[in-house]
Amino acid sequence: MDSTESSSNRFDGRLKNKVAIVTASSDGIGYAIAERFAVEGANVVISSRKLENVNSAVSKLKSKGLNVFGVKCHVSDAVDRANLFRETVNRYGGVDILVSNAAANPVAGPVLDCSEGVWDKIFEVNVKASFLLAKEAAPLIRKRGGGSIIFISSIAGYSPIIRSATPTPVNDTVAKGWQDLLLGAYSVSKTVLLGLTKAVAQDLVSDNIRVNCVAPGLVRTNFARTLYESKEALDGIPMKRLAEANEIAGVVAFLASEDASYITGETIAATGGRISRL
After folding, report:
1. Which active-site residues does the annotation give?
2. How does pLDDT run across 118-156, given as a tens digit for each residue?
3. Which end of the chain is more exposed for a tag (fewer CB within 10 A), N or C?
4. How many domains does one find in the chain?
């Protein structure tokens, strides 16, 4: 039984007639979210930087009988963002749900080793684009009487992720037998999303727009492959397994639905038991 079949039996119709935009949704977590939303009855807009990837994802989901539409969108491009919202409104008449999922992580290393150019790129995609997408979506969601904005952060937002790499000791402070590589700048950008969630939630609460965040742990996706390929990857996860993308999608769908009608300004950490905070 695939994720679509299992979720369809339980949640079919929970997002009926809602219009949802999911960025970076041609693969991985974004694709799983788009699929779950469509299974639950939403009209879903798939978007990604490359049109061929968008078309491929749309084709796969339509083959399952799901109602989806695709728009090419690089979230850091103002023209692309404007076109994403325009095409969505033209196609479905408005927007009820925005999921800001796009992220970049071009380097691994200590935060102070990050170059200014790489720092700018990470924050351009991971933070600034999320802020601008929310800013541009809010008036459209307000016109529908309210809805939901969901940011996708990471467990790295609470504690920088350590990636196990080559089996070479570095110094006495590094675990013997393997090298630690901190995802420093990426982690900082994901921390900012936690604060952005709280701030935007306060701004929009009177408009009946709920704003929440999901912080996944290690998920079996191409984006996270370098983080989980080593044997030490599961050491900090009590469940001793990776998350599947559809498990994160289930949390996002909950936050987008009326089942979460009294939740705003919160971050749910889906980490397999890895501690994020008290």
Report:
1. 186
2. 999 999 999 999 999 999 999 999 999 999 999 999 999
3. C
4. 1
